């Protein structure tokens, strides 16, 4: 007898589940094999370029390939034995080369012909595949956009308690004028990073232009408590501003909210204007007009201050500039756009006289620099490409554009080849360029100027205008003038003087910096001659004025000058030649007077840095990186008891400007001046010009808007609305 054995219930359930699992796998394998068979059959039905192989009989092969006396093999052809086989081989040979085609090529080397139906089916298959892929991609992108857009809508969260410092609501009074001192901000305690930054040094940046934004993008936000003060709450992409005056670009495509940039460094922004700086107490007097017509005045304290307030248009003492338009801000561009469209509308009215119509359609640009030239080119493009589409064609014959330039040619800071090309381009486009002309007065309806002829004789002329743009250099703004007047060491009355470390001369060392158009770097090497010779005088026990330097000592001095004044390196390439040239008495040494004369000539050769966005951007990058490094070594210097002295020179190198080139738009064409290499051209150069500025845009948002504006102009033309 064998005892019966019964599995427990739970074990039977396990066995049954395992059998079910294996059965599912088996069914899946059968379905997979069936689908693979169906797919292979479907693929065989699709048209293919590969022709079926035709087995060539032995009678048609060369005799050298016939092998007799060998065992039969399916790979070796045997000779035909019957007459019927020979006839069949002959018929195959006479049927044409297409029977022996392989991969579309016949034995004779002639391409095999395909049937029209086969080609049509294959092309239709490729076309439907491409269209299907494109439609699928568009549908996926649109669906993805709506999914992302749905995530951007949020409901109001529950109200939570917000911690605000009492000093932020009721600042204490102090300073020379007993004004409120802003020591705490309303959003200081909104995040943990904000709470930590309250203990960091307070960095204040005046301005929201190229220099200020470059500092914000290159500084470590964990090292400073950052505040930006500016009356404009946006960054303006100034190189493309002329395009916005005629509707090529929209205004919002050129601006980026400054709060977005400040938020990335966990800083604060105040929409106000700085009026005065109290250097002794480290306070900035700030003012902002109130809604009631009064003014809000308060102090903002600082530990480090960066002045990047830019500049304003230079009037050169000309009367009547209140009748002119400027092009420095987005409001200026909007006003010019309104005036251009308004003049065109007035010229269309039936009651407008012929003389008044010509005056309204006369546009005068005072200044032949990049801004004036690009505005004239953009204005010509508007009148030439879009005017006749929506306005009477007779207006095009009455339009005139004039450029008044005080120098002998426009774009005088560029290479001569570029200036000549720009003038020839304007002449071809019927833009009147008046060189050697200086504006003396601007009236309400005409510009009075004097122009010299070929003999140098000045003649007084006048031009009626409907719009006059003034673009002739830069001048100081009010806060820059106040800084220069309050510091005795400032000798330049046109800009704030800084040393090569961008520190304001006369201000407490290492506390105040100035960058951009509002500043200029003092490069007076001769003033430091005593400092250069001091060590040699001590070694020789002589007075500095009695010292003489050998060639090796002169090489050391030249290296020191290059380190302190990087812009002088270009004039100190041949130190041996300079030593020989200025050693007038041929003594083999340079005495004090000879060395002074050498350094004075170097000072005269060095020029001030250009007031461009490129220079402000480079200075902002330099200063942001240097402030970050100064913050890193602060604790180390404190441990070594280094609390004073030239810490900037100890920690970081002096600023060195690298000119990357200049470019300008001249009407469906562009010019490039790249450090001695010039490039001019038509549409290709214009697209390259656009690409450069497209890459320099401050954010992906502005790049997308620029692309859409250029696309809109190409599809629908420029915007001619007067808003």
Tell me how many strands there are.
28
Strand content: 15-25%
Q: Sheet with the most strands?
A: 5 strands, parallel
Mean pLDDT: 82
**Number of helical segments with 4 or more residues:** 24
Tell me the helix content.
40-55%
Low-confidence residue ranges: 1-19, 63-81, 96-103, 105-110
Shape: globular
* Global Rg: 40 Å
Structural class: alpha/beta
Strand order of the largest sheet: 7-4-3-11-22
The N- to C-terminal Cα distance equals 108 Å
Summarize the structure in words.
The structure is a single chain. It contains 24 helices and 28 strands. The chain has 723 residues and is α/β, with parallel strands linked by helices. It has a 5-stranded parallel sheet with strand order 7-4-3-11-22, with helices on one face. Strands 15-14-13-19 form a 4-stranded parallel sheet. A 3-stranded antiparallel sheet has the order 8-9-10. A hairpin with a 5-residue loop joins strand 9 and strand 10. Helix 6 runs parallel beside helix 20. The termini are far apart. 28% of the residues are buried. Mean pLDDT is 82; it is low at 1-19, 63-81, 96-103 and 105-110.
